[in-house]
TrEMBL record:
Belongs to the UreD family. This is Urease accessory protein UreD. It comes from the Bacteria. Required for maturation of urease via the functional incorporation of the urease nickel metallocenter.
Amino acid sequence: MTTTPPPTQTPPHASRGVHAAARIRATSNGYLTTVSLLHSDGPFHLRQLRHHGTQARVCVLSAMSAPLGGDRLAIDVTAEAGAELEITTSAATLALRGATTDHATYDVTLTVGEHATLYWLPQPLISTHGSNLRQTCTVDLAPTARLVLREEVILGRAHESPGNLASRLTVHRDGRPLLAQQTTFGPSAPGWDGPAVLAGHRATGHILIVEPAFASTPPAPRLLGDEPANGQGIVAPLAGPALLATALAPTATHLRHLLDDAVRPSHPTRHG
């Protein structure tokens, strides 16, 4: 008698996760910026918001829990020549443990054309216990482009240790490197919560402002925060028409206050 072996079962830990992407493109007719492309799938849902003056605005909503282990997510944003575009998210992004032990990836690509302005202002990313996320943000700026980019990270929910998080930011302006930095947090990064890194704080973030006018009038460096227990930070000009404000704090609220204070004298920023 011939028997047919049962079909091979894929173990849960080998799950490939969700592969999804979103694309946003904004163009200008010389008077008003319009969103010429909104495409998304998987956990992404894109909603165009009411204009702010001539500026177009888009909100990224999450239609499902993501990123989970094994997920491969990507967002591609282009502000074409002369366009003014703001991107925000409806809520914090939760990096969660999935059915697989594989890491998740979340890749953001931002392209800003000549005389265009892009505000990238997502809500914080929360690294939850057991999660494993590798996040990248790659920015390509034309020589006359303007950028306000905010990234905030909360390491663990209330009374919870964080997962593993690796985040990399790479910025090119006129084809030349302007900024490249990488941070890692969580159990796989020795010393991440020690005095040389976060000193026990659980919220950290930065705002990058690229402004061509800084070439002639660069911002002065300064420290942020009067009470170390409530967080501290620094505003530093870069070797280019840009400034980088970096801060750490005990909570997301304290972190936002520090970053808002960092940019208030330098550039108008939205509160997405």
